[in-house]
């Protein structure tokens, strides 16, 4: 069995590789365009005959198709993720987050890959940004693309604490430099999860998901000030940017009406599911269960230990 992780040299790819090495006997291919991150990935997991690396860009269909030879399972994590960069470079965002991901999906279908798992974000739920719109487009493409042989599953989750571009890196840097932490809106709520929880979600979807599924972690949330307080009490309020929401949503009302909650941890959404819970509100960071101070501390400590 062979698994390829597109965009696999980052924080998620590193953690997912460790999980696959531990829980399976599969061979793993890491596909990304950043040779420095690939070097760091190898340093973190150690040398393994089961892991090999391919330099390439998902914008290049031929390179993607070539990389998929003999692959059974695909994890699609490639993306431009920084909201500001996507807003100021919308065409570049489109080329990677839409065109590039469609290249991977179409090439996977052509190669008769058994299963593809696409990693999405809460920013795709009623999106207000270029980034969120690009992820929602690919979510819908996964669901609607003409396909008979490849099972395509979507996953969606909130902020992965300490992932590349996470606010944790900004707060940690400012704190170490003795500077004030810049906070847009202290009362803003966000979903947060550890990298291990993100990996567990994708692992669950990979093993148990079926075509058309959307898997969502039953995320807890907190206000941004509580996260900032984990690093420093010296904070400066700079104001909310126009594209930012006060709260984020992981599931719409319609999606909740077509969902089931498994193990009290994972929402599985599929058009074939009907429930009678009578949902009237979406699943948002405002109405979700809140992270305790101890849970936040554990999340910060887990991240720091992984550095």
Brief overview:
Helix content is 40%, strand content 22%. The chain has helices at residues 11-23, 35-45, 61-67, 83-88, 90-110, 130-144, 167-176, 195-208, 224-229, 253-257, 293-306; strands at residues 2-6, 27-32, 51-55, 73-76, 115-121, 151-157, 159-160, 181-183, 189-193, 214-217, 220-223, 235-237, 249-251, 259-262, 266-269, 283-284.
Walkthrough of the structure:
40% of the residues lie in helices and 22% in strands. The chain is an alpha/beta fold. It has a single domain, classed as 3-Layer(aba) Sandwich (Rossmann fold), CATH 3.40.50. The chain has a nine-stranded mixed sheet with strand order 3-2-1-4-5-6-10-15-14, sandwiched between helices. Strands 7-9-11 form a three-stranded mixed sheet. Strands 8-12 form a two-stranded parallel ribbon. Helix 1 (11-23) crosses helix 8 (195-208). The longest helix has 21 residues, at 90-110. It is globular, with a radius of gyration of 19 Å.
